[in-house]
Amino acid sequence: xxxxxxxxxxxxxxxxxxxxxxxxxxxxxxxxxxxxxxxxxxxxxxxxxxxxxxxxxxxxxxxxxxxxxxxxxxxxxxxxxxxxxxxxxxxxxxxxxxxxxxxxxxxxxxxxxxxxxxxxxxxxxxxxxxxxxxxxxxxxxxxxxxxxxxxxxxxxxxxxxxxxxxxxxxxxxxxxxxxxxxxxxxxxxxxxxxxxxxxxxxxxxxxxxxxxxxxxxxx
Length: 219
Ligand SMILES: Nc1ncnc2c1ncn2[C@@H]1O[C@H](COP(=O)(O)OP(=O)(O)OP(=O)(O)O)[C@@H](O)[C@H]1O
Fold this sequence. Notes:
28% helix, 6-stranded mixed β-sheet, alpha/beta, Rossmann fold, binds adenosine-5'-triphosphate
C-alpha cells in the first residue's frame, strides 16, 4: 500500500493528489494489470472497453477488493484499506458477468417486497421469476435479478461487468434506464461493455484497456 495521509480533513494519496467525492483509484495494480489511476464522481459513469482478456474484470475485482492488489482505492476520500472488507463491498458493489447464486431459490437472495417488484417491473421481468428455481431462469433473467440484488443495496459505486450481454436491445435500454436512475441518486458506475452503442449512450468518460493498461486519453 502506498503511503497516504490526511491534510485539512482531505485524504491525500502518495502522489500528492487530494481525493475528491466518489470513487478514487490511484496506482492500483497487481501482477496482471495496472497501474490504474482514475476518478468516478457521484452520479457519473466510466465505461471501460477492451478486447477479451485485456484485464477489465481484473480491474473491477481489484476495485471491489476481491483480488489482491497494491495501490489506493477510496470512496469519498475514505480508503478501502481503512475499513472492514464487508463495509467496503456493501458500498462498492461488484456485479460479475456471471453472477453467483448461493441457493437455487431466488427468494433466498432478495425478499418479495414492493422494492423488488418495482425494480422487476423496471427491468421487464415477469412476476414468476421470483418463484422459479435459479437454474431454470434464462441468462438474461439471472442478469437482471442480479442487478436488482445489487440495486437493493443502494450502492455508492456499482462495478458492472457486461450487465447486458444476454439482453435484447429493448431490454438493454430498460436496464440502462435503471442505471441512469441509480446515477441520479448519486451512484457512481464503472461499466465494462463490449457494445460501442451502449458505451456512447452511457459514458461520461471512456477508457480503453489493452494488455492490462489504459491506452489513449480519457474521452
Ligand atoms: N487470479 C488470476 N490469476 C492469474 N491470471 C488471471 C487471474 N485473473 C485473471 N487472470 C488473467 O488476466 C487476464 C485478464 O482477465 P480478465 O478476466 O480481466 O479479462 P477481460 O478483459 O475481462 O476479458 P473478457 O472480455 O473476455 O471478460 C486473462 O488472461 C486472465 O486469464
